[in-house]
């Protein structure tokens, strides 16, 4: 009824991320796991016919490794016709086969001739259901590739949950069993970290299985994400991106373990989940609702061109069958069908999802394959294999293997169906090994499906252009020269390109031979030959990143005749940049695999020496920056165009009439850095020209911040991949930051804080600070990575030759860190100061922040959190330098040992720490009634000595509470207004100790001319310090305080007001009432009777003014009622 569109969705044009590739060539002795170039007829099993696929055009089916172990061949021979045979091939080179109740595990031999291959036969636990290879997994403490058989453990789980565990594959008879409480049928088992396993069921129940020291199996439910909003409902919590447990009706398709990232992925019928897995615990970090987004993308890719698509999409059904990990992301195999199709056909799609950390990228690549089946046929039996580098995928069932593109790169390989349907044959399982797709054929054993004519890993356009470039070389023999021949420098450049082309076409041996002839290993890196290698490699890579799009007719007159690079044939600038990045990545992989990357030295650049490897990294960074800028070009064309034009003017580059400034600028990627300086200049110009209140004024700085953040963030991710390549070969790179990046961020920091922040409103300030902190995080993170790269792996200490450089960089890092964070502290942005200072260990900023906010509890928290970095010693030194001896000596008891150690070098203070005369000092402080400052000092010393004593906790708490209470009373005298002290000729250091009554008198007297509600509130608070022995009537004194507070305002001036409450709100009396209410004081019990207050001596002048009594009673009534 409905037919799919002929072309897949537009989302497929995405560059693949190709990390460092494992060598297929390996050592000169041969390939590690590579297929023999022999006919499948060379192998035979006792009763099986040989498979020969004469129909395949683009792929060969070749035997893989040596002959199958005898036990495997015997099991195949003895198997009944209805026995289910299931095989799994692991990347580590191990394979296992389930045949009935028999499990055979063997190591795939690396050579054609089998020698002593490991092969073990195990008996599975009884089960009412058939076992499959998915219910078996193996694990070892170290890499499985090199693990001895004694260290390999095996776990099998029956569909009902009966687990059988072998601690060592070497002892087949020793195993332990346990019943796992899955709640329904088990469908998958994977090995994770810590020698443990994860078991999944058909309804997405996940268990973490491990062994205790005695070898017994234990299990627990895998930890599910629980957000703080989990109690308010699934719908609401999803708005905040919170994680919630899966519903019980979800059907799990598969679980996938990503060993390098330490992550476990689970694909269910409605979501993709991710856990970060440690040795003994795990945390769910992603729960992405996939059904709505993926179903719509898949339906649109297949039926979107139908005229009645909006109506028919309701009948579309999607089933998710398998999931694999590739450099481009998670590749999900899905089958889609429409319920009204006659006949009902299932269309198979490959959906690539990019895991971006907190979520899944909104951009989804959907590749509709040419593989279809009737709806009821082979849906759940179709599985997926995606070998490195992820451009090609292989779908397989028992009858066939279907090779197709994943859609993540342009110009993918052709689709092809490879049949295994000969009598007695069939595909019983598969996997990847040695970056090859491996399948188990029942009649031929392990076979590899390889391209008949090797498909180059380069983009198609660059492959053709490189061939043209080499073919155009005049009088250059493509034969390998003898080592004794002197090869011209230009010819060496072209011949290294030829070696690179062979590498890209998987002719690894030919590529290696050509490289060895051009640059022999003996004397590598020495003299002129070493310098020539650096120059040739640099020239090729620079030609690549700065190449011309020669096929673009607008460039016809601008391409120099001597251009010998990789002329691009794509007309779209972003695609040109993507192809350049792909080719650069392939070139780096080529240098690594043929052994040239380790031999690179240095070149002269910008007037000084620079490591060649660092220059290659810089080229990659600039390509990444160019792609980011081109993406932003479409969003902020006017701003980016202005910056691009400014950069071209500074470079003196002319723009031909047939081209745009963007064409010229993005062609020469090596000069990309200059545009960011011009971007800031354009920003400053617009800030000056546009009014502060205009939308353009704010948008300009927010846009520039975003461009810089996205650009640097992408570069950091790129550098992580670069470092992985270098770490594999033990190469140190001293810097991973393109020139000018730090200067640009520093300049933007100054623009934001000096020119924009003071003029911005609160909302804009918040956005600016968040963006700025993101930039500073990237900036400081670059320093941290650079410092780490200067350290040796053993012991984490910098090498002696690098010590001076390391010390200088560390000092520079500390200075720049404080200079950039300190302005945020001055602005009171404590949240961001804490975030940056905690992450980058700026202890000075942390101490200053705690002191400014008077947050001692937070300071104590940092002392504990950073105890391994001697944060406490830093705090002690800081207090010493700032002259804050009191705070230094008043540390909590938990830090006394560190304080004692610190004070050993400060003998003039250490004696105070060891004093235990707290009782004497406390007695003296209590008895001191003459001098205020002396009593205050004695109380402080008493507290210090008490903290240093060994008294029990209960006694110490009571003692400290008493001291704190006395200090609180002294605070009332210490905070007397300065004007009042001057009028009374009192000095804070020499004045006598005043009684509570005396302090009250001072606070409420007419001499305190600037008294306010705070002074009267202090007077009220002092009433509780008056002893009963003192002949003072507290209630009378309280009425006097309130009466004098009433006299501070002219109440009669409000006569005639419609609302007697409104003008009284600003009176001292009402403000006192509000403070009492805020503290929870019951006004009904606390306030004096209103009649007694009116009759007091202080208010005698108001007796003849009825309006005063009216207003007072109204306010009394109002505030008393407010507490009922």
From TrEMBL:
The keyword Nucleotide-binding does not apply. One of its GO terms (cellular component) is nuclear pore outer ring. It is found in: Nucleus, Nuclear pore complex. Keywords: mRNA transport, Nuclear pore complex, Nucleus, Protein transport, Translocation, Transport. Residues 1-13 have a biased composition (Polar residues). It comes from the Eukaryota. GO terms for molecular function: structural constituent of nuclear pore. Residues 1-30 are annotated as: Disordered. GO terms for biological process: animal organ development; poly(A)+ mRNA export from nucleus; protein import into nucleus; system development; transcription-dependent tethering of RNA polymerase II gene DNA at nuclear periphery. Residues 67-405 form the Nucleoporin Nup133/Nup155-like N-terminal domain. Belongs to the nucleoporin Nup133 family. PANTHER family: NUCLEAR PORE COMPLEX PROTEIN NUP133. This is Nucleoporin 133. The lineage of its organism: Eukaryota, Metazoa, Chordata, Craniata, Vertebrata.
């Amino acid at each position: 009824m409905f037919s799919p569109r002929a072309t897949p969705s537009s989302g497929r044009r995405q560059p693949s991320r190709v990390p460092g590739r494992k060598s297929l060539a390996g050592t000169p002795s041969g390939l590690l796991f590579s297929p023999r170039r022999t006919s499948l007829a060379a192998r035979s099993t006792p009763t099986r016919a040989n498979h020969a696929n004469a129909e395949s055009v683009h792929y060969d089916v070749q035997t893989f490794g040596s002959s199958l172990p005898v036990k495997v061949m015997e099991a195949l021979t003895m198997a009944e016709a209805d026995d289910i045979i299931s095989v799994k091939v692991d990347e580590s080179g191990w394979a296992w086969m389930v045949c009935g109740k028999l499990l055979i595990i063997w190591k795939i031999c690396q050579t054609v001739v089998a020698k002593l291959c490991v092969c073990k036969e195990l008996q599975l636990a009884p089960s009412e259901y058939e076992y499959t290879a998915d219910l078996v997994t193996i694990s070892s403490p170290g890499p499985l590739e090199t693990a001895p058989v004694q260290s390999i453990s095996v776990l099998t789980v029956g569909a009902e949950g009966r687990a059988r565990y072998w601690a060592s594959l070497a002892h087949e008879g020793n195993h332990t069993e346990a019943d796992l409480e899955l709640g329904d049928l088990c469908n998958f088992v994977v090995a994770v970290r810590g020698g443990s396993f994860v078991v999944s069921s058909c309804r997405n129940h996940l268990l973490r299985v491990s062994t205790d020291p005695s070898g017994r199996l234990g299990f627990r439910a895998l930890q599910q994400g629980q957000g703080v909003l989990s109690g308010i409902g699934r719908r609401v919590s999803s708005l905040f991106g919170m994680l919630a447990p899966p519903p019980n009706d979800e059907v799990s398709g598969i679980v996938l373990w990503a060993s390098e990232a330490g992550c476990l992925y689970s694909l269910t019928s409605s979501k993709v989940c991710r856990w970060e897995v440690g040795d003994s615990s795990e945390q769910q970090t992603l729960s992405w609702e996939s059904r709505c987004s993926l179903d719509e993308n898949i339906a649109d890719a297949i039926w979107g061109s139908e005229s009645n698509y909006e109506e028919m999409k309701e009948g579309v059904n999607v089933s998710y069958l398998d999931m694999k990990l590739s450099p481009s992301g998670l590749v999900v195999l899905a089958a889609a069908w429409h319920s009204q199709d006659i006949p009902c056909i299932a269309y198979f799609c490959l959906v690539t999802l990019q895991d971006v950390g907190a979520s899944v990228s909104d951009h989804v690549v959907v590749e509709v394959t040419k593989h279809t089946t009737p709806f009821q046929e082979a849906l759940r039996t179709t599985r997926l294999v995606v070998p490195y580098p992820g451009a090609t995928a292989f779908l397989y069932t028992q009858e066939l293997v279907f090779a197709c593109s994943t859609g993540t790169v342009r110009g993918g390989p052709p689709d092809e169906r490879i049949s295994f349907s000969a009598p007695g044959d069939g595909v019983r399982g598969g996997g990847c090994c040695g970056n090859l797709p491996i399948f188990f054929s029942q009649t031929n054993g392990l076979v590899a499906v390889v391209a008949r004519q090797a498909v180059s890993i380069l983009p198609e356009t660059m492959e053709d252009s490189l061939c043209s470039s080499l073919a155009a070389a005049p009088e250059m023999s493509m034969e390998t020269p003898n080592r004794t021949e002197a090869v011209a420098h230009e010819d060496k450049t072209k011949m290294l390109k030829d070696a690179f082309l062979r590498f890209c076409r998987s002719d690894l041996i030919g590529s290696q031979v050509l490289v060895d002839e051009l640059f022999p290993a003996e004397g590598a890196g020495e003299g002129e030959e070493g310098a020539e290698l650096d120059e040739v490699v640099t020239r090729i890579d620079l030609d690549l990143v700065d190449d011309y799009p020669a096929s673009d007719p607008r460039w016809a007159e601008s391409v120099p005749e001597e251009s010998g690079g990789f002329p691009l044939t794509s007309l779209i600038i972003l695609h040109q940049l993507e192809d350049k990045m792909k080719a650069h990545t392939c070139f780096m992989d080529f240098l690594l695999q043929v052994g040239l990357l380790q031999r690179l030295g240095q070149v002269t650049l910008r007037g000084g020496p620079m490591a060649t490897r660092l220059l290659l990294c810089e080229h990659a960074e600039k390509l990444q920056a160019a792609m980011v800028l081109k993406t932003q070009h479409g969003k902020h064309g006017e701003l980016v165009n202005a910056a691009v034009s400014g950069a071209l003017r500074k470079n003196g580059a002319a723009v031909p009439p047939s081209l745009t400034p963007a064409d010229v600028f993005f062609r020469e990627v090596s000069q990309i850095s200059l545009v960011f300086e011009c971007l800031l200049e354009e920003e400053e110009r617009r800030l000056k020209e546009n009014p502060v209140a205009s939308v353009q004024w704010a948008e300009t700085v927010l846009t520039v911040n975003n461009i810089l953040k996205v650009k640097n963030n992408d570069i950091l991710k790129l550098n992580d991949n670069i470092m992985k390549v270098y770490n594999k070969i033990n190469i140190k790179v001293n810097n991973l930051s393109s020139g000018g990046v730090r200067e640009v961020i520093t300049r933007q920091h100054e623009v934001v804080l000096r020119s924009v922040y003071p003029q911005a409103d609160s909302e804009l300030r918040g956005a600016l600070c968040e963006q700025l902190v993101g930039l500073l995080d990237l900036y400081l993170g670059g320093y941290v990575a650079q410092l780490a790269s200067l350290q040796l792996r053993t012991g984490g200490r910098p090498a002696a030759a690098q010590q001076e450089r390391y010390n200088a960089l560390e000092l520079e890092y500390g200075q720049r860190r404080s200079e950039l964070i300190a302005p945020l502290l001055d602005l009171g942005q404590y949240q961001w100061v804490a975030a940056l200072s905690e992450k980058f260990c700026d202890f000075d900023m942390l101490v200053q922040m705690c002191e400014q906010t008077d947050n001692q509890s937070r300071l104590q928290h940092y002392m504990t959190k950073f105890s391994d970095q001697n944060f406490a010693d830093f705090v002690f030194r800081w207090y010493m330098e700032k002259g804050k001896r009191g705070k230094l000596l008043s540390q909590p008891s938990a830090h006394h040992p560190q304080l004692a150690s610190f004070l050993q070098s400060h003998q003039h203070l250490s004696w105070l720490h060891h004093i235990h005369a707290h009782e004497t000092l406390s007695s003296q402080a209590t008895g001191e009634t003459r001098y205020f400052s002396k009593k205050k000092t004695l109380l402080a010393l008493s507290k210090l000595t008490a903290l240093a004593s060994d008294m029990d906790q209960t006694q110490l708490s009571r003692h400290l509470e008493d001291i704190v209470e006395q200090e609180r009373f002294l605070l009332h005298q210490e905070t007397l207004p300065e004007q009042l002290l001057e009028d009374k000729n009192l000095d804070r250091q020499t004045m006598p100790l005043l009684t509570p009554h005396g302090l009250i008198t001072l606070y409420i007297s007419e001499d305190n001319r600037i008294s306010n509600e705070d002074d009267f509130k202090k007077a009220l608070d002092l009433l509780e310090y008056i002893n009963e022995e003192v002949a003072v009537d507290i209630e009378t004194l309280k009425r006097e305080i309130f009466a004098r507070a009433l006299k501070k305002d002219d109440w009669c001036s409000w006569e005639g007001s419609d609302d007697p409450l409104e003008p009284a709100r600003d009176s001292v009396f009402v403000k006192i009432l509000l403070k009492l209410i805020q503290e929870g004081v019951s006004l009904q019990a606390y306030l004096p009777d209103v009649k007694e207050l009116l009759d007091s001596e202080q208010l005698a002048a108001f007796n003849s003014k009825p309006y005063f009594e009216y207003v007072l009673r109204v306010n009394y009534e109002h505030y008393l009622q407010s507490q009922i």
